[in-house]
Amino acid sequence: MCFMIVSVKSLLNLYQFPTGRRLYCLRRLLEELEGSGLDALRSRVERAIAADEETQDLEFRWRGSQGRTEYGPEATLLNAELCRALSALDENLASTSKALGEDGCIAKCHQAWGSQSREGVQC
User: Fold this and answer.
1) This model's pTM is above 0.85
2) Chain Cα centroid distance, residue 16
3) Which of 55, 57, 75, 97 would bridge 106 by S-S if both were Cys, CB 3.0 to 4.6 A apart?
4) Of 17, 12, 49, 11, which is closest to residue 30 (Cα–Cα)?
5) Do 79 and 63 share a structural domain?
6) Phi, psi of 38 (to 5 degrees)
């Protein structure tokens, strides 16, 4: 019988996106909500963007007054892992769309993914 030992710390150690990455995602979500009729959700996303913009301003001011880096080694490793996963997803979409045809569903997904990833987050 195999038992898995799990600490409480590992259960509570959730990863939170940095403010800049969270703002990027919220802004993309806001674009997708345009004309969707989901006004209540759109309003909440707009409030979240406003709050994160204030948070980002505070972070910039705080970082400017400190002589240290913002994130620890765990976040740096996680960011590298995330970038590898996003790159792998892009390569998978490209090869699958090439194999199945450039006018299929996968190809359209890859085109949408490519336009979003080139505009936003750089690894």
Assistant:
1) no
2) 10
3) 97
4) 49
5) no
6) -95, 65
DSSP assignment, residue 120?
S
Domain that holds residue 22: 17-70
Structure token pair of residue 99? 């194999």
DSSP state string for 44-99: HHHHHHHHHHHHHHHHHHHHHH-SS-SS-HHHHHHHHHHHHHHHHHHHHHHHHHHH
The vertex-31 CA angle with 100 and 101, nearest 5°, equals 5
Does residue 7 fall inside a structural domain? Answer: no
Query: Tens digits of per-residue pLDDT, 49-86?
Result: 999 999 999 988 887 776 566 667 677 778 778 888 77
